[in-house]
Amino acid sequence: MVNFSVKMEVYQFGEKSNASKATIILAFAGAGKTYCGKKYKNVLDYDYLFYKFIYKDEMKKSKTFEELKGREEWRKLNPLWPQNFMNQLLENLQKYDVILMPANDEIISYLEESKLDYLLCYPKAECKSIYMKRYWERGSNEEWIRNMEENFEQNVQGFDEHACKKIILEGNETLEDKLIEMKYVKKL
Q1: Edge to edge, what strands does the sheet with 43-45 contain?
Q2: Which of 9, 44, 91, 115 could form a disulfide with 96 if both were Cys (CB 3.0 to 4.6 A apart)?
Q3: 25 three-class SS
Q4: Rounded Cα gap, residues 54 and 171, in angstroms
Q5: Does residue 135 contact residue 92 with C-beta atoms inside 8 Å?
Q6: pTM, entire model
């Protein structure tokens, strides 16, 4: 169990709190988190990788974020993880309307332990080819793409099993389409 007691008094962990104005959305890789975070000022693309891992300086300088994903040889676990991630998340809850994070079981468990509500956004399993194309186009590393290709359907089915509110993407739909539909952002 992770100790999040540092901010407990302020954020009233253990009970649902109105301490946050932001909606947290955990979105599947390739749904458009980074795009939305760059396009809309009220949306934060909050990735955990630079909180969880310490990357070799030469790799941070020479590689893109997508190239760094999944490359164990270029990083080591940050001893401050996950407290550093959760502390920053709690601060960001007051600054943004929407906080986007990668959808994975580790992050889900931290949010649930902290009693923070979230939406889970992911595609239908039949959208696999669309997402594989997106991964190549954005420059994800080959090893990471192979892993996603092998586990795509299993990942989607795993998200189906979570007991939370869900946003299911069909066809070429993106997270931005859903944020506009849900009136979190206005089409620019």
Answers
A1: 43-45, 98-102, 23-27, 119-123, 165-169
A2: 44
A3: strand
A4: 36
A5: no
A6: 0.82
Distance CA 67, CA 43 (A): 24
- CA 56 to each of CA 44, 49, 64, 71, 73: distance values in angstroms, whole numbers, following the listed order: 25, 13, 13, 11, 9
Sign of the dihedral defined by the CA atoms of residues 80, 82, 85, 91, in that order: negative
Residue 9's SS3 state is: helix
Nearest to 175 by CA among 134, 121, 95: 121
Query: What is the rounded distance in angstroms from the CA atom of residue 86 to the CA atom of residue 187?
Result: 30
* Contacting residues for 66 by C-beta, under 8 A, at least 6 apart: 138, 139, 140, 141, 144
What are the tens digits of pLDDT across the range 156-171?
Answer: 999 999 989 999 999 9
User: Which backbone phi and psi does 128 adopt, to 5 degrees?
Assistant: -50, -50
User: What whole-number distance in Å separates Cα of residue 63 and Cα of residue 56?
Assistant: 11
Give the side-chain half-sphere CA count within 13 A for 106.
10
